[in-house]
């Protein structure tokens, strides 16, 4: 059976349109790496990933390909496994967000944990943005939800984002993947069953959004 035959059965005539999507993925760690893999496995190749980090041994419980590329650049390592993607090795800052041209991209996928960058993204490109909040410190993937930033609950990180956006008088809506499960530790514990599920959910939301946008045009 051809590589994408089962995807085509599910997406029908929308598959060809999905394969033409242009995606910007910010962060390829525990959430972003699974999102990238999911997008790629469904025929989306025009993906630009941005990350500045290198894999270390502590990543190996949750980040795809990390055990094969210890101490190597994340974006360069990812390109070995997904050769059609584009890479930018860069530490994201709010200044970079403010200066960057997001117009060529159909969707901006935010899989980072820097609140200053998240706030800048929301303010600049909320119409194209899909964002993930806190995936660490949790065990139950069934508590993952998708809603607007204003309807997130049970997540202190999301609460802080809402607070900061209100201070900036930002009232627009954009979709957010979050977990309502209370954090079970104060330390940086993580479980791939949740972090990976966040990334797969982000991919699903992105594909559904692309299909909806296409049908609307």
Overview of this structure, please?
The chain is α/β, with parallel strands linked by helices. It has a single domain (5-216), classed as Rossmann fold (3-Layer(aba) Sandwich), CATH 3.40.50.720. It is built from eight helices and seven strands; from the N terminus they run H-H-E-H-E-H-E-H-E-H-E-E-H-E-H. The chain has helices at residues 5-11, 14-18, 32-41, 74-81, 94-99, 115-125, 156-167, 192-216, and strands at 23-26, 47-51, 86-89, 107-110, 129-132, 144-148, 175-179. It is globular.
A few lines on this structure:
This protein has eight helices and seven strands. It is of the alpha/beta class and 217 residues long.
The count of strands amounts to 7
What is the rounded distance between the termini? 32 Å
**Count, helices:** 8
At CATH's second level, what is the architecture? 3-Layer(aba) Sandwich
Return the structural class: alpha/beta
Instruction: Please report which band the strand proportion falls in: under 5%, 5-15%, 15-25%, 25-35%, 35-45% or over 45%.
Output: 5-15%
Q: State Rg.
A: 17 Å
Shape: globular
Give the SSE string. HHEHEHEHEHEEHEH
**Main sheet, how many strands, which sense, barrel?**
7 strands, mixed
**CATH homologous superfamily descriptor:** NAD(P)-binding Rossmann-like Domain
Proportion of residues in helical segments: 25-40%
Q: On the 0-100 scale, what is the average pLDDT?
A: 95
